Backbone:
């Protein structure tokens, strides 16, 4: 099983749609979880951390299920500017090292 | 506050040539990292450093060397470049206890012919 696996995508959705990304991780010792966003030909940037109780930031909601080793990201009311690659990221046994999923490409169409 | 900067932004090498990529951060971060990103492979950790004067191997260290002589700088060296090292290289840094957020530089696009 790969360390971090994401939906292969790509996702093409109209503006205003709700889209969900899923991610599974293999290391049960992982302590921290994140979603990063990467625009085309740019560097990754932190979108949001993922907490056990779930957390929301505007139109974005992240969920964590430690028992199933599953992370999700929900984007509501998609905007054109949400078009990017979304990377699921977890820490391994060492809390300062991150393991990245391969990413899921989202294109929001007008 | 420039954040994380990388030099150069683009480079073309011939097989066997050497080069050094420079990463600098002005956020006083303890941890620094070098990644490579290839299509279909995602970001893979090459080497990292948990403090000045320390380095450690990541997931794909072969063919690369690093040095962290100053806290703000992290150098990645290719002694004898190979076409398999054609990639986009990202440097990142993070706080010792900063919730693990890593701040990335803009990347270096390297092509080895």
Residues:
């Amino acid at each position: 099983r790969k360390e971090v696996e994401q939906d292969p995508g790509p996702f093409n959705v109209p503006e205003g749609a709700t889209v969900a990304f899923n991610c599974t991780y293999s290391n049960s010792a992982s302590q921290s979880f994140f979603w990063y966003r990467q625009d085309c030909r740019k560097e990754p940037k932190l979108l949001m951390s993922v907490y056990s109780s779930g957390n929301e930031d505007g139109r974005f909601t992240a969920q964590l299920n430690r028992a199933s080793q599953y992370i999700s990201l929900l984007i509501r009311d998609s905007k054109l500017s949400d078009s990017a690659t979304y990377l699921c990221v977890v820490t391994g046994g060492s809390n300062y090292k991150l393991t990245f999923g391969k990413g899921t490409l989202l294109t929001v169409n007008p | 506050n420039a954040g994380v900067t990388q030099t150069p932004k683009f480079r073309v090498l011939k097989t066997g040539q050497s080069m050094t990529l420079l990463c600098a951060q002005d956020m006083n971060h303890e941890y620094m990292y070098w990644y490579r990103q290839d299509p279909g492979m995602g970001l893979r950790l090459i080497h990292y450093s948990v403090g000045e004067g320390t380095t450690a191997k990541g997931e794909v260290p072969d063919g690369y060397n690093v040095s962290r002589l100053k806290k703000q700088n992290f150098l990645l060296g290719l002694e004898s470049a190979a076409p398999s090292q054609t990639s986009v290289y990202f440097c990142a840094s993070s706080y010792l206890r900063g919730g693990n957020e890593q701040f990335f530089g803009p990347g270096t696009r390297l092509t080895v012919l």
Remarks:
- The interface with chain B takes residues 32, 34, 42-46, 49, 87, 91, 95-98, 100-103 of chain A (CB under 8 Å).
- Chain A has no helices and eleven strands.
- The first strand of chain A starts at residue 4 and ends at 6.
- The two ends of chain A are 37 Å apart (CA to CA).
